[in-house]
Hints:
Helix content is 88%, strand content 0%. The chain has helices at residues 2-34, 36-43, 47-69, 73-96, 103-131. Helix 1 packs antiparallel against helix 3 (47-69) and helix 2 (36-43) crosses helix 3.
Amino acid sequence: MTAMTVTADRTRFLRLALATDAVVTGGNGLIYLAFAGPVGDLLGPDTGLLRGIGIFLLVYGAAVGFLAARPNAAAVKAVIALNMIWALGSIAAVVTGVIEFSTLGAVWAIAQALVVGGFAELQIIGLRKANRP
């Protein structure tokens, strides 16, 4: 029983980082999907794009939430990579103008990129803690 407690304690930070990511991601997805019109008016992107992003974020958030219950190193590394890609892609979308953001939308995109990058960093830390002997 002690070995199980030690193992569970080593993955606790990682599981919390994944679960928090899942809740925030799923929440954003739900808002983008349910309120695409008003969010689009506020941030700039059209409703079709926001609905597509919303569906993706809901599915991704659910997958990350499932992973939080039983972290697997390879899957966690994939989540970290996808989070980094999302963060960099969001910044690139603002810088290149490929998505027409309002000023508030550009600020929002950069802010959420920082949050997603922060999740990746927390997950890296959690993975390292879980793999310590």
